[in-house]
């Protein structure tokens, strides 16, 4: 009996449009069947967001079939049936005997399927960046007559230009990120434990706003004095104090789609260093956004920020941002000088201007934006200020 599905995130036609774009790229590379293993790419092509990628799984996209076939651990099959747009009969749960098996794993089940369905001599695409070298060798050894082709990050590049439906989810995610930041303004006080504040902020991110709850928790970083120079740590067992600086980075998430946000807080009057860095960073941020337009390249955006920031006497050594969408970072375009990726409407980026200046001081501010027909649309509605508490 087919399992009833929950409501799908996107209509079937949206997924088929995405699959068609992938199949067109497959055709150019003489690939008959593609094994998609990147969790974000599986989400993009099917709607699946369950956290099961710690064991072998893969979405098989075939030139012969309209819908893909999904291989996963048997216990994760029901999640796929609920979340994916595909027919439940195309979800194949491999047996538990392939888990923690020193000789075989779930990819062996996928290879068996490919051989049994006439792909033994075909062009087989793999996202080799997202599987082990051992797995690639397994495909080559067990399918000696097939042509194994590296599909690279092709699906990620296809994902780079979002549909209007995807943009709508990212706006919803941004509204939830704003709610989290506003909750931080309410709960960060001298004497409050960092963990208690984190719990309240995360609660706001999950509850969401406008009837659109968060569906996952993306990266969450709370870096408070004396750890304001850190970039990627969680809360500590410490408490906030008068004079503390707090750097927050997190994102709202809607069905895998993420909108990231960074803001800096100060309990009491900001230090002179913080004030001066903030002024330079905001000026640079505005210059970077002004450089966004179709036809410009990612490097132009970074150059506009870096040039402006240097005029204020500061420098940022890390990149200025990156493409964002499903599961936060998309490993394609970077907002850094020298990146020649051409900006197109509905590309989305996290203009991430965190600046860790020395071992004792850092500062954060960011905006998630989309490229429009004429410039940039930022998703957050919050002011670009140091929030003084």
Structure description:
This protein has 389 residues and is α+β, with helices and mostly antiparallel strands. It has 2 domains: 12-159, Creatine Amidinohydrolase, Chain A, domain 1, CATH 3.40.350.10; 164-388, Creatine Amidinohydrolase, CATH 3.90.230. Helix content is 33%, strand content 22%. It has helices spanning 12-28, 39-46, 77-83, 106-116, 133-142, 154-159, 164-187, 194-207, 272-290, 298-311, and strands at 33-36, 58-62, 69-73, 91-94, 123-126, 147-150, 220-224, 245-254, 257-266, 321-325, 328-334, 348-352, 355-358, 361-363, 366-371, 376-378, 387-388. Strands 4-3-2-1-5-6 form a 6-stranded mixed sheet, with helices on both faces. The longest helix is centred in the middle third of the chain and has 24 residues, at 164-187. The radius of gyration is 23 Å and the shape is globular. It starts with 11 loop residues before the first helix and ends with a strand. The model has no long low-confidence stretch (mean pLDDT 96).
């Amino acid at each position: 009996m087919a399992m009833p599905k929950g409501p799908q995130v996107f209509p079937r036609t949206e997924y088929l449009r995405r699959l068609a774009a992938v199949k067109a790229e497959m055709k150019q590379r003489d690939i008959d069947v593609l094994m998609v293993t990147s969790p974000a790419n599986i989400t993009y092509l099917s709607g699946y967001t369950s956290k099961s990628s710690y064991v072998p799984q893969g979405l098989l996209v075939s030139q012969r079939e309209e819908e893909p076939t999904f291989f996963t651990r048997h216990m994760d099959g029901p999640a796929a049936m609920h979340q994916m747009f595909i027919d439940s009969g195309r979800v194949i749960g491999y047996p538990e005997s392939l888990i923690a098996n020193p000789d075989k794993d779930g990819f062996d089940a996928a290879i068996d399927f490919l051989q049994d369905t006439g792909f033994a001599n075909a062009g087989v695409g793999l996202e080799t960046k997202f599987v082990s070298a051992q797995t690639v060798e397994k495909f080559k050894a067990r399918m000696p007559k097939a042509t194994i082709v590296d599909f690279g990050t092709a699906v990620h590049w296809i994902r780079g230009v979002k549909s209007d439906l995807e943009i709508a989810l990212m706006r919803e995610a941004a509204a939830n990120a704003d709610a989290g930041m506003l909750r931080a303004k309410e709960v960060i006080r001298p004497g409050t434990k960092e963990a208690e504040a984190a719990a309240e902020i995360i609660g706001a991110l999950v509850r969401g706003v406008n009837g659109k709850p968060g569906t996952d928790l993306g990266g969450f970083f709370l870096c408070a004095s004396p750890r304001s120079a850190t970039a990627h740590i969680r809360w500590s067992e410490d408490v906030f104090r008068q004079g503390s600086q707090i750097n927050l980075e997190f994102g709202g998430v809607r069905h895998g789609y993420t909108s990231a946000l960074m803001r800096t807080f100060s309990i009491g009057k900001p230090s002179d260093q913080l004030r001066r860095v903030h002024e330079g960073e905001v000026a640079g941020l505005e210059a970077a956004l002004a450089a966004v337009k179709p036809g410009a390249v990612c490097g132009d955006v970074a150059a506009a920020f870096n040039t402006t920031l240097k005029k204020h006497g500061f420098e940022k050594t890390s990149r200025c941002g990156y493409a964002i969408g499903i599961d936060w970072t998309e490993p394609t375009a970077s907002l850094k000088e020298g990146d020649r990726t051409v900006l197109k409407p509905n590309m989305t980026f996290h203009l991430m201007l965190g600046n860790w200046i020395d071992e004792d001081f850092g500062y954060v501010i960011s905006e998630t934006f989309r490229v429009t027909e004429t410039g940039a649309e930022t998703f957050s509605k919050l002011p670009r200020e140091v929030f003084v508490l």
